[in-house]
Write a structure and sequence with these properties.
Number of domains: 2
Radius of gyration: 24 Å
Number of strands: 35
CATH topology of the largest domain: Jelly Rolls
Helix content: under 10%
Distance between the termini: 13 Å
Strand content: over 45%
Shape: elongated
């Protein structure tokens, strides 16, 4: 297929320059297609060696995924909302945690997920229910909170995470070898909203629990033994994180105080009307998506994914968003809105890679998702203001900066591609 020759803008996240806060476009080979990036210093990514590393302020976070412990070759642009790690000394359990019932901590024992020898060892002398807890409990808010930690087996491959809200206790056992999660000891019957084991390679796993709290009183605990443990059990730990939200964001390092990572912004606002098709065109985005959910997905609000529109008047735009766990596509115009992808709830799944293409042209608008028709409209396309900007989030009625996106590729075409071309592009 030669459809790529029609592209007026191709963005593959493969080049950046932190000193100029730019993410470079492959086509056109000029400054017109370059994105401006705004982010805080010390946010992290997974680099080409599979290590967690900090990035400079305003540096595009070109990160990578692990699948079944294998580092994937395709980089993606990582964009996240504001998150705060409320745990202090996230990489030094010897300083910030207190031991109980025969538990002990040895600091800086092995290589951690960031490549430095900063992983600590939690051990037990065989006493039942050996555990550690923070010397100062993290500050949380009512609502959903996520607790995560990186763990690696030593003489033990099991770890218990307990979240104590006073009257409500969550206690779950993680097995690193089988990658299973089960009921912990002294179980109260409470099951977290979400619980996950992520294989991060080199024997490291990220253990994650999300729950919904009705109080700000919170005490996390980490157990190394239960009633059946034997003397000398030990396991390696690193990178503790407690954050408000329904999923774990990228790791946020802390030392003596909580650290907030401000939302990432990536956009073009310098005038693209000569590149973006004004009366017809095609948009394509290859991405993964995580969004904040509620206990009832039917009440989930708007979450923007991608928008091409007028910089001064965002009501003139082509937008892709998530609403109540379903993807939607709109052609928004001053004269009215065309819906060309009002998806049913449940078709937007977390940690799933999607390819979505949108064709806009009077009488023939269609969108395709992973090779299948998502929606269509025979309405009129007539923008009163030029489409001259590209946004991954914008501030409109509280819809911005509420989700995580991993963008593998973005393309625009100044012509309307055929149905067969859209199917090939999204398959």
């Amino acid at each position: 297929m030669s459809i790529y020759n029609k592209a007026s803008l191709v963005q593959i996240p493969s080049g950046y320059k932190a000193s100029t806060a730019k993410l470079y476009s492959v086509v056109p080979n000029s400054t017109e297609g370059d994105f401006t990036v705004s982010s805080v210093a010390d946010a992290t990514r997974i680099n080409e060696e599979g290590l967690i590393e900090k990035v400079s302020a305003n540096q595009a976070r070109l990160s990578r995924n692990f699948i079944n412990g294998e580092l994937q070759p395709d980089p993606f642009l990582l964009l996240e909302p504001t998150r705060t790690n409320s745990i202090i000394q996230s990489e030094d359990l010897g300083t910030s945690w207190t031991t109980f019932n025969g538990g002990s901590i040895s600091i800086n024992q092995i290589t951690s997920p960031n490549g430095s020898i900063t992983a600590d060892k939690l051990s037990t002398n065989g006493t039942t229910f050996s555990f550690i807890k923070p010397s100062i409990n993290p500050t949380i808010s009512t609502g959903s909170n996520t607790f995560s930690i990186f763990a690696k087996a030593d003489t033990s491959d099991e770890l218990w995470l307990r979240l104590d809200y006073g009257t409500i206790i969550y206690n779950r056992k993680f097995n690193l070898t089988t990658q299973t999660i089960s009921t912990g000891f002294d179980n109260t019957g409470n099951i977290p909203d979400e619980e996950t084991i992520e294989d991060c390679g080199n024997g490291w796993y990220r253990l994650i629990i999300t729950d919904n709290a009705d109080t700000t009183s919170f005490e996390p605990r980490i157990y190394i033994s239960d009633a059946t443990s034997t003397s000398g059990d030990s396991i390696y730990l690193w990178g503790v994180q407690v954050e408000a939200g329904t999923y774990a964001s990228s790791y946020i390092p802390t030392t003596t105080e909580a650290v907030t990572k401000i939302n990432d912004i990536c956009e073009i606002t310098n005038g693209l009307e000569d590149i973006i098709g004004q009366t017809e065109g095609t948009l394509f985005i290859d991405f993964e998506y995580l969004y904040e959910t509620t206990t009832d997905p039917a009440t989930d609000a708007f979450r923007d994914i991608f928008t091409i529109g007028n910089v001064a008047d965002i009501s003139e735009a082509i937008s892709v968003d998530n609403y109540r766990s379903g993807f939607r596509v709109f052609v928004n115009q001053a004269s009215g809105t065309l819906s060309i992808g009002n998806n049913t709830a449940g078709n937007s799944q977390p940690n799933t890679r999607y390819k979505l293409a949108v064709r806009y042209k009077t009488g023939d608008c269609k969108s395709y998702l992973n090779g299948s028709l998502l929606g269509s409209s025979t309405g009129t396309v007539n923008f009163a203001s030029p489409l001259n900007g590209i946004f991954f989030s914008y501030n409109n009625s509280g819809r911005s900066f509420k989700n995580q996106k991993k963008v593998y590729q973005l393309m625009t075409f100044d012509t309307a591609l055929s149905d067969s071309e859209l199917i090939v592009l999204t398959s």
